[in-house]
Design brief:
single chain, 124 residues, mainly alpha, 2 domains, rod-shaped
Length: 124
Protein backbone atom coordinates (compact mmCIF):
# COMPACT_ATOMS: atom_id res chain seq x y z
CA UNK A 1 0.00 0.00 0.00
CA UNK A 2 1.33 3.45 -0.94
CA UNK A 3 1.99 5.99 1.83
CA UNK A 4 0.63 9.56 1.68
CA UNK A 5 2.64 12.22 -0.16
CA UNK A 6 4.14 13.63 3.05
CA UNK A 7 5.83 10.27 3.70
CA UNK A 8 6.59 9.33 0.12
CA UNK A 9 7.91 12.47 -1.54
CA UNK A 10 7.64 12.63 -5.27
CA UNK A 11 4.73 10.21 -5.41
CA UNK A 12 1.51 12.19 -5.64
CA UNK A 13 -1.50 10.60 -4.00
CA UNK A 14 -3.99 13.40 -4.60
CA UNK A 15 -6.78 11.92 -6.67
CA UNK A 16 -5.26 8.45 -6.51
CA UNK A 17 -7.52 5.42 -5.95
CA UNK A 18 -4.69 3.88 -3.93
CA UNK A 19 -4.80 6.60 -1.24
CA UNK A 20 -4.15 5.32 2.28
CA UNK A 21 -7.49 5.96 3.99
CA UNK A 22 -6.37 4.92 7.46
CA UNK A 23 -5.04 8.31 8.47
CA UNK A 24 -8.12 10.42 9.27
CA UNK A 25 -7.72 14.09 10.10
CA UNK A 26 -10.08 15.98 12.42
CA UNK A 27 -11.19 19.43 11.37
CA UNK A 28 -13.16 21.52 13.85
CA UNK A 29 -16.00 23.54 12.35
CA UNK A 30 -19.18 25.20 13.56
CA UNK A 31 -22.59 23.87 12.56
CA UNK A 32 -22.90 26.71 10.04
CA UNK A 33 -19.48 25.99 8.54
CA UNK A 34 -20.25 22.27 8.34
CA UNK A 35 -23.50 22.95 6.51
CA UNK A 36 -21.71 25.26 4.07
CA UNK A 37 -18.97 22.68 3.41
CA UNK A 38 -21.59 19.98 2.82
CA UNK A 39 -23.53 22.30 0.49
CA UNK A 40 -20.41 23.17 -1.53
CA UNK A 41 -19.33 19.52 -1.72
CA UNK A 42 -22.77 18.57 -3.01
CA UNK A 43 -22.64 21.37 -5.61
CA UNK A 44 -19.24 20.06 -6.74
CA UNK A 45 -20.68 16.52 -6.86
CA UNK A 46 -18.03 15.31 -4.38
CA UNK A 47 -17.96 13.78 -0.95
CA UNK A 48 -17.12 16.17 1.91
CA UNK A 49 -13.82 14.38 2.42
CA UNK A 50 -12.85 14.65 -1.26
CA UNK A 51 -14.02 18.27 -1.42
CA UNK A 52 -11.99 19.30 1.65
CA UNK A 53 -8.94 17.34 0.51
CA UNK A 54 -8.92 18.79 -3.01
CA UNK A 55 -9.68 22.32 -1.80
CA UNK A 56 -6.92 22.21 0.81
CA UNK A 57 -4.35 20.79 -1.59
CA UNK A 58 -5.16 23.17 -4.44
CA UNK A 59 -5.43 26.49 -2.64
CA UNK A 60 -2.57 28.83 -1.74
CA UNK A 61 -2.28 29.69 1.96
CA UNK A 62 -3.54 33.12 2.97
CA UNK A 63 -1.58 35.56 5.08
CA UNK A 64 -2.58 35.85 8.72
CA UNK A 65 -2.59 39.63 9.00
CA UNK A 66 -4.77 42.42 7.84
CA UNK A 67 -2.82 44.66 5.46
CA UNK A 68 -4.93 47.71 6.32
CA UNK A 69 -4.29 47.27 10.06
CA UNK A 70 -0.57 46.84 9.42
CA UNK A 71 -0.45 50.07 7.40
CA UNK A 72 -2.31 51.88 10.19
CA UNK A 73 0.24 50.65 12.72
CA UNK A 74 3.07 51.88 10.52
CA UNK A 75 1.34 55.25 10.16
CA UNK A 76 0.89 55.56 13.93
CA UNK A 77 4.53 54.69 14.47
CA UNK A 78 5.51 57.47 12.08
CA UNK A 79 3.27 59.92 13.94
CA UNK A 80 4.76 59.00 17.31
CA UNK A 81 8.26 59.45 15.88
CA UNK A 82 7.25 62.93 14.67
CA UNK A 83 5.92 63.79 18.12
CA UNK A 84 9.21 62.70 19.64
CA UNK A 85 11.23 64.73 17.12
CA UNK A 86 9.00 67.77 17.60
CA UNK A 87 9.34 67.54 21.35
CA UNK A 88 13.13 67.30 21.13
CA UNK A 89 13.32 70.23 18.71
CA UNK A 90 11.02 72.34 20.86
CA UNK A 91 13.11 71.70 23.95
CA UNK A 92 16.35 72.43 22.10
CA UNK A 93 15.09 75.64 20.48
CA UNK A 94 12.99 76.89 23.40
CA UNK A 95 14.56 75.95 26.69
CA UNK A 96 12.06 78.28 28.33
CA UNK A 97 9.17 76.01 27.30
CA UNK A 98 6.76 75.70 30.16
CA UNK A 99 5.49 72.53 31.68
CA UNK A 100 1.97 73.43 30.48
CA UNK A 101 3.19 73.44 26.88
CA UNK A 102 4.77 70.04 27.31
CA UNK A 103 1.77 68.64 29.13
CA UNK A 104 -0.47 69.70 26.26
CA UNK A 105 1.68 67.74 23.87
CA UNK A 106 2.12 64.81 26.20
CA UNK A 107 -1.64 64.65 26.83
CA UNK A 108 -2.09 63.55 23.22
CA UNK A 109 0.18 60.51 23.60
CA UNK A 110 -2.33 58.30 25.51
CA UNK A 111 -4.84 58.89 22.73
CA UNK A 112 -2.30 57.67 20.17
CA UNK A 113 -1.43 54.71 22.39
CA UNK A 114 -5.11 53.80 22.74
CA UNK A 115 -5.59 53.96 18.98
CA UNK A 116 -2.54 51.75 18.48
CA UNK A 117 -3.87 49.22 21.01
CA UNK A 118 -7.22 49.14 19.17
CA UNK A 119 -5.52 48.52 15.83
CA UNK A 120 -3.29 45.80 17.24
CA UNK A 121 -6.34 44.19 18.88
CA UNK A 122 -8.25 44.31 15.58
CA UNK A 123 -5.36 42.72 13.70
CA UNK A 124 -5.34 39.60 15.90
Amino acid sequence: MRKPTSYNKGTPTHGSDRRDRHRPMAVYVSDTERAEIERRAELANRSCSDYLRSTALECAPQRQFDRRALLSIIHLHELLCRVELTLKQMLAEHPETTADGLYGLLARIPEAQQRLAEIVGDAR
